Amino acid sequence: MSSTSLQRLSGISLLVGSVLAIAGGILGIFSSNPADSMGIVGSLIQFIGATLVILGLPGMYARQAQRAGIPGLIGTALMICYILILGAFGSALNAVLLPFIATHAPALAQSEPPGLGIFFMVGGLLGALGGISLGLSTIRASILPRWAGVLLMGSVIQVVGDFFQSPIANLGFMLVMIGFVWLGIALLASEQHDARVQSEFSTSATRV
């Protein structure tokens, strides 16, 4: 696969995935019952969105790899782990297992295994470190929008919100996904720019 094709697919994957993740998160906000159909649909949408974002991250890093360097690579890997744990796995859990438990064992649904909480806490910490590392690397690289890199640091807000069980956790998640929307659009725009430049270069070479 050419770098141009990888960049295009990554841009589409990030854009569509982050929009779906935002839509799923909004549906989840208006659902208070784990067995509610709106919450289940929102979790499924968020699962699909998180999966697409994960698939788009390697191409995003490849676009700025030379300037983002090792910190950018580490940040990308950590963000993949973060989205895999809290986005994909967490959403799948909320969509499939939690509604079943809430329906057949309501008392059990009021608590969670201690190991699961630690698992999600580790995922959040990885996201905080990944958001800072990838965000700063994106800002420093100056290839993709710098403010999108700032938005990726919203993962820190999500971790703090989850720790204190505050609604600001949702704000942090939204900021990260908006950052990925911006990066997806930027990847598609730069891909079109590169294709135009390459076409003009080929035309000039033919004339010569």
TrEMBL record:
Keyword hit for Nuclease: no
Transmembrane feature ranges: 12-32, 38-61, 73-102, 114-136, 143-161, 167-189
Entry keywords, A to Z: Membrane, Transmembrane, Transmembrane helix
Signal peptide range in chain numbering: none
Keyword Membrane in record: yes
Top-rank lineage group of the source organism: Bacteria
Full protein name: DUF4386 domain-containing protein
Native species: Dictyobacter halimunensis
